[in-house]
Design brief:
Layout (H helix, E strand, L loop, with lengths): L2 E7 L5 E7 L3 H10 L3 E7 L13 H16 L4 H11 L3 H15 L4 H6 L7 H13 L2 H58 L5 H37 L1 H13 L3 H22 L4 H10 L4 H15 L5 H6 L5 H13 L2 H57 L1
Antiparallel strand pairs: 1-2, 1-3
């Protein structure tokens, strides 16, 4: 969804600015007007398309949320909590955001509205839960649940990253060894064979041709590879249809597809369960869950579910039609609906699928490690054999 930047003045007359997501410019102007911002100018957010990040990690944010919850439970005023956290937070970028939030609240804004101005840091899920906590007078409980959610998400991300680090490093080192072999070692053999003369075996000639091509076109190949990666990322970011096809492919891949599907189910159940247990209405909770799903195929399916529920249907049947959720998840969601304990059921499913994701990662890495070693070892072995074939022939001729 396109992003629009706005500048204007709050009700208190203070200058405000920020970014929002909207379908078009008219919708963005309506959202800004709804926030009671006067003399507002709204335009499409600029930039080159590359986002370098905010410098604030999920670990920093979860620590802030946990400390914020503890101070709120202790009965400290909201402004005092934020001022203390802005001084104690080690991350300077986050401390700056906290100070701006504190200033906005002193100008008459709510905590949720102030956090919405810093959307790259505080997600829609975060802002919706804070809004529900403020409305229900249970902000400390909501912040505690948010911290639990962020810590669980960070722990799962860390496990996946740690498990995939070793095979990726092995692959990078092996590819580097192959490049070094082809561009440094093979040319030495090639010069020696040219001095010897005679007809070389076909495998040797093929390897020498590949080596010569790599040696003379290495930089062009690197530029082409970088361009292809950047083009792919830009295509995913800018073309909704391409992003839909790409995310659908990710769910169907033989090895990675199962991991992607289980991760999507775990994220969906944990997000929706956390929102529902915090008092967010189901339609709003599903909308936020869709926008934070990380997969546009799943996002489209959840939005169809929102439309179906608005028409009077249950949540289980439309989710089944997406084709993403396993039968067991659909059955447990249906049971949770009938018993009135949907949020608890979703939390249990998310815990189960977190374990499933860990098992899928372990299984994937156990297959990737030997696969990478065998494939790249086979390539190196084939190159060495091709280089030694002429020597074997020479030895045979001498005998």
């Amino acid at each position: 969804m396109p992003r629009y930047s706005y500048k204007g003045k709050s009700v208190a007359g203070k200058a405000v600015e920020g970014e929002i997501e909207a379908e078009n410019l008219g919708a963005a102007q309506a959202l800004v007007k709804k926030r009671r911002i006067k003399d507002a100018t709204v335009r499409k957010a600029g930039g080159t398309g590359f986002q370098l990040g905010t410098g604030i990690g999920l670990k920093d944010l979860s620590r802030f949320t946990r400390q914020f919850s503890a101070m709120n439970q202790a009965g400290l005023p909201l402004i005092q909590c934020l001022d203390i956290l802005s001084e104690q937070t080690e991350n300077k970028a986050l401390a700056q955001r906290i100070r701006k939030i504190s200033t906005d609240i002193q100008g008459g804004g709510t905590l949720a509205e102030s956090m919405e101005k810093h959307k790259p840091v505080f997600s829609e899920l975060y802002c919706q839960m804070v809004r529900a906590g403020e409305a229900g007078g249970i902000l400390d409980t909501i912040l505690s649940r948010l911290a639990d959610y962020q810590e669980a998400a960070e722990a799962l991300r860390r496990k996946v990253k740690g498990a995939l680090t070793y095979p990726v490093m092995v692959a990078v080192v092996a590819i580097g060894a192959v490049f070094a072999l082809m561009t440094l070692v093979v040319p030495v053999f090639a010069n020696m064979f040219k001095d010897m003369g005679g007809q070389l075996p076909t495998p040797t000639r093929v390897v020498m041709a590949i080596s010569d091509f790599l040696k003379h076109n290495l930089w062009w190949m690197l530029i082409l590879m970088v361009g292809a990666v950047v083009g792919l990322l830009q295509g995913i970011k800018r073309s909704p249809r391409f992003r839909f096809l790409w995310d659908g492919l990710m769910l169907k891949l033989p090895l990675f597809g199962d991991l992607q599907r289980k991760s999507a189910v775990a994220r969906f159940c944990r997000t929706l369960g956390t929102l529902l247990s915090s008092g967010v209405p189901i339609l709003d909770a599903l909308t936020v869950t869709a926008r934070t799903s990380g997969n546009v195929v799943l996002e489209a399916g959840i939005f169809r579910t929102v439309e179906a529920i608005s028409g009077g249907q249950s949540i289980a049947e439309p989710l089944k039609a997406t084709g993403v959720f396993p039968p067991m998840v659909i059955q447990m969601i249906a049971v949770g609906e009938r018993t009135g304990g949907l949020s608890d059921m979703l939390t249990r499913v998310s815990d189960f699928y977190d374990t499933e994701v860990e098992a899928a990662v372990d299984s994937l890495t156990s297959m990737l490690e030997p696969l990478v070693i065998v494939v790249l070892g086979g390539i190196i072995g084939a190159v060495l054999i091709a280089m030694y074939l002429p020597m074997f022939e020479m030895a045979g001729n001498i005998k």
